[in-house]
Write a structure and sequence with these properties.
alpha+beta, Ribosomal Protein S5, domain 2, Alpha-Beta Plaits, 2 domains, globular, binds cytidine-5'-monophosphate
Length: 274
């Protein structure tokens, strides 16, 4: 049995630069990964996918899970069998932290490890690219600047060990409609320098359109901004998950307790950046 972690991604900044003719948007984004996320297990056997964990219910019965699509594409490209996958779904679905993309990337990594395929094989990245804009970043699995749809990646030095709190107000948000609600104004590129500084000077251009679709995002941001010791508070991806970065785990713990007390139904993850 092969076990692969599928860590959540966050966008430390996400600048939307222009609409493209193919329906996508040209973006610049700073990807970072947290240490926790979903887990994917691969065993020998006929192709199958079992889903367990706190968010399994949302996905069960869904025919075209990204894990299944990743395994199908891998089998076609490498002429190797799929396998029996078990996904432990711990990350909320449609929440801006790349859960499905992380699962797909973990499936590709698990199959590659089983078959002795190098994890930097360009064919894996081509499959990842075909599965979704965030899948290549999840396959790379380290801090990076993403351009294009988010698939053109340039690794950057990360913020390993930095305490992070993720909060989701329990509203599923689809990516397409959020991009479609972007106002079309290019607010400029991501700057140069060290990662945290670039992030602090950056923004998430999808926050305003996402808030118009899911106003609870504003409540999540306000709660995080209320806490002491935050270095950065921002929405991730197209929402609705918001995150805060801290210097000290004690500040993260206090903020998490405050969120749990104020909003017992919300999802809250205390972690560190990978
Ligand atoms: O690539 P992915 O399938 O994850 O994207 C979902 C949707 O998000 C796309 O169909 C598109 O509407 C939107 N999107 C976009 N620009 C990007 C990434 C995604 O418009 N850079």
């Amino acid at each position: 049995m092969i076990v692969e972690q599928a860590p959540a991604k966050i966008n430390l900044a996400l600048h939307v630069r222009s609409r493209r003719d193919d329906g996508y948007h040209e973006i610049e984004t700073l990807f970072a990964f947290v240490q926790d996320g979903d887990e994917l297990r691969l065993a020998d056997g006929p192709p199958s996918l079992a889903i367990e964990g706190p968010f399994a219910g949302v996905l069960t019965g869904e025919g075209d899970n990204l894990v299944t699509r990743a395994a199908g594409a891998y089998a076609a490209v490498f002429a190797k069998p799929g396998g029996a996958f078990t996904l432990v779904k711990r990350l909320p679905v449609a929440s801006g932290i790349g859960g499905g993309s992380a699962d797909a990337a973990a499936a590709l990594r698990a199959l590659a490890r089983r078959d002795g395929v190098s994890l930097d094989d360009p064919r894996l990245f081509a499959i990842a690219d075909s599965l979704g804009s965030d899948v290549p970043a999840c396959l790379l699995g380290r801090s990076a600047l993403g351009r294009g749809r988010g698939e053109q990646l340039e690794p950057v030095d990360g913020l390993t060990g930095m305490p992070v709190l993720l909060v989701n107000p329990g509203v599923a948000v689809s990516t397409g409609p959020v991009f479609a609600a972007w106002d079309g104004r290019d607010r400029g590129p991501i700057g140069d320098g060290a990662l945290l500084g670039r992030a602090l000077l950056g923004r998430n251009d999808l926050e305003a359109p996402a808030r118009s679709i899911a106003p609870a995002i504003g409540d999540a941001l306000a709660l995080l901004l209320d806490g002491a010791g935050t270095r950065l508070v921002r929405m991730s991806g197209s929402g609705a998950t918001c995150f805060a970065l801290y210097d000290w785990p004690e500040d993260r713990a206090a903020a998490a307790n405050a969120v749990r007390a104020a909003r017992p139904g919300w999802w809250c993850l205390e972690s560190v950046l990978a």
